[in-house]
Amino acid sequence: MELHKRLDYGFIGYQVPHIPRATRSPRGRGNIRKKSDSNEMCAFDLLTTVAGKLLLEGESTSNSSGKDRSVVVKDTAETVKDDEDTPLKENPCNEGCQERGFFISEIVSEAPVVNHCLSKSTDTLSGPASVITSSDCSEKLGSAEQFINAECKTENRNCSTKVEHELSGCGDFSSCTLGAESKKQLKINLSNDATITTNKRAAICSSEFPDPWDRKSSMLVALDNTVKLSLSTDPDPFGSFPVIRNDVQLANKDDDEKSCRCTQPSTRNKTFRPAPRVVDWRMRKLQASKYWEVNPQSDDEGHINVDNETRHVYQKRENVYTSERSQRDFPFKKRKLYYCNSFSNSDGGSSDGICSSPTKDLNRDASGYSLASSGARAAAGTSIPKGASASFRSNDSHVKLKIKSFRVPELFVEIPENATIGSLKRTVMEAVTAILGGGLRIGVVFQGKKVRDDSKTLFQAGISHDDKLDALGFTLEPSPSRGSPPLGPEGCSRVLPCETPQPLTRCTPGSTIIHNGMQQETFNAFPDYSGINLSNFIESDHDSAPSPPDASLEKNAADSRALVPVAAMDAEALAVVPMRKPKRYETVQRRIRRPFSVFEVEALVQAVEKLGTGRWRDVKMRAFDNAKHRTYVDLKDKWKTLVHTARISPQQRRGEPVPQELLDRVLTAHAYWSQQQARQQMKHQSETRLLL
DNA sequence: TTTAGGG
DNA sequence: CCCTAAA
Fold this sequence. Notes:
Layout: E1 6-11, H1 43-54, E2 69-75, E3 78-82, E4 100-106, H2 134-139, H3 143-158, E5 186-189, E6 195-199, H4 215-224, E7 226-230, E8 244-252, E9 287-290, H5 308-326, E10 359-361, H6 374-380, E11 399-407, E12 411-416, H7 421-436, E13 440-446, E14 449-451, H8 458-461, E15 472-478, H9 509-512, H10 550-557, H11 571-574, H12 598-611, H13 616-623, H14 632-647, H15 660-691
Parallel strand pairs: 6-7
Antiparallel strand pairs: 1-12, 2-3, 2-4, 4-8, 5-6, 8-11, 9-10, 13-14, 13-15
This protein binds a DNA duplex through helix 14.
C-alpha cells in the first residue's frame, strides 16, 4: 500500500458569505435597515432563528436518525442554558457584542464544556473569527442584522414567551440550549395565531425548515399565520459531529458601545462536548437528495401587495422556475440582503449561480442537524413561567444581531499530498456540506490567491509545505447550479430565503415580467408605442441572488476569514494556534447582475420619452415602481448603456439583443431631451447674464 | 436623497 | 453595477 504524505487541516472556522443585504427601498436608496423589538426576543426566539438559519438538511418524514442537536447560546465562555424565556436583557453580555455566539451542538449532557471558541482574543484560534468590537457592532451592523432584526421582530410578535426587556437591551440567554427531551409533537401557539410545530424528527435546518430569516418565511407567516418548525429530538447518532458555531453579535441600540461585563461565567449545564474532536469526514458519504425548497405559499415581499390577478400570474411563473430556482437557492441570505449571488464573474463563471447545489442527504449519514427541542419545550410552554407571555410588549429597545461568521471548530481533513485541489475541495465540501446542508461549494485560496484549477495537485499548488499552510484558506461560495437537482420529494413546501435573492436565473423577459395589461401609459411627448406599463409588472426581485460574489470572497480571502486550515496538531494545541487576525469583513457584496429584459427596456424608453433623461427618480416610480431591484441609478445607467448600444454597430452589441426599434427610440429621445437640457441651460445662462 | 458621471 | 461628488 502506498503511503502518502498527508496533510491534515484543522478547520478552525470559516466565514460564510455575507448574508444578502436588504433590498433596496422602492426609491432606490440604500439598504433597508430593519429594527426589531429585539430586546423582547426571548432566547428561544433567537435560537430558533439561528437554528433555522444554520440548519441543514432534515426531513421530518425521513427515517433519519436525527441527530440531537442543540443550539446553545454562548456568552463569554459560558454556555447559557435557560432558553425558555429568559429575556435577552438579562444577559450581561448584551452590551459587549463580541462574545456572544450561537452554537449548534450535540447534546451531550455531562460532557464538560470546553469552550475554546469564546476567547476574547481575535488572534487566537479560539477567538471567534467574527469577533468584532462593540463599536463595530454599533457601526457596522450589516445586512445580516437587518434580516435578523426583521425576523426577530416577527418572531417576537408572535411569540408568547415572555421576555422582559429593558432599554438597556442586555439580554440574557440564561438557557439557550434546546434540549432534546420531547419526542412528541409540540405546538407552539403564538400570540397572533401563528403556530410553531415541533416535530420530533424534523431537522431544523434543512431545506424544509422555514428560514426564520427568510423573508419568504415571514411572508408565509403573514399569509397563513402558521409557521412550522421541525425540531429534532432524536439522539445523536454521531457523537463526533463537530460543533457549529455561529457567532452572533448582539448590539443594543443604546448600549452597543458598552463593554461586555460578563464576568461571572455561569456554571450551569454545559451542553458541549469537549470541542477538540477529530472527525474523519472522509468516511462520510453523503447522499444527494435534498434541496432547498421554495414554499409556494410564501410570496416575495414584492409580490404580496399585488392584486390577485397579478399574483396568480406570478405564482404561476414561479412554479415554472421552481426547479431551476430551487437548486440555486442559497441557504444563507445573505443578504446584505441578499446576501449571495452570481457573482462570480470573476470565477470563470463557474460560480455564477448561487446557490445551492444539491444538498447531501444528511438524514442518512449526517442525519442532519436537528434543533433539539428545548426550544420546543419552551415553546410548548412546559417551562414557561406564568406571565411570561405577557411581556411581549414592544418598546424601543432593540437588539441588533449580526452574524459575521459561522465556525466549525475541529474539523479535520486528512488528504494525500498528491491529491488534487479538486479532491481537497470535495473533501472539505463533504465535511462542510454535512454541516451546512449544502448549497455551498468550497473555494480554495492559497497565499491570497484563489486556486481555480481543480486538477492541480496540492503539491503543484505549493500547498504541501507545512510552513505555508497558514496561507491556505477556504471560502464558502454559492454552489453553481449545475446538476439540476430534482426537487425534493416534499417539493411542495419551498422555503426561499427571504432577502436572499434567488439566483438570477436568466429569465426570459416574458417570464420575468408580468404584464397585466391593465393600464396603459399615454405619453404626451411621444407616441405610446406599446402601452407597456411596467409599473404593475411583478418585480422579479426574487431572482436576486443571495450570496456574496466571488469577487468579494476572493477579495477577502487573504484575510483568512474563510476556512483556515492549520497544520494538524493535537486538538489542545489547535485551540491556541494563532489565526491571522481577520480584518473586517465589511465588503458588501456586489448586487447580482440582472440584465434588463426587452420589456424593461421598453418600459424605460417609454418613461424616458415622457419624462426626460434627468428625472430618474420619476422614471423609476413611473415604470419600475414595483421593481425594487431597479434603482433610479440603475435606470440611469441602463439608459446610458442603451444610448451607447444604440450608437454602436449591431455587431458590437452583446447580450440580449434589443430591438432596433427601441434603440432608435432611445436615440431619438436622448437627442430630444439633450436638446431640451441644452435649451434649459441656455435659458438659465441668459437669465444669469441678465441678472448680472 | 437625487443627479450626473467616472470607474 | 459601483462609487461619489454635487446639488
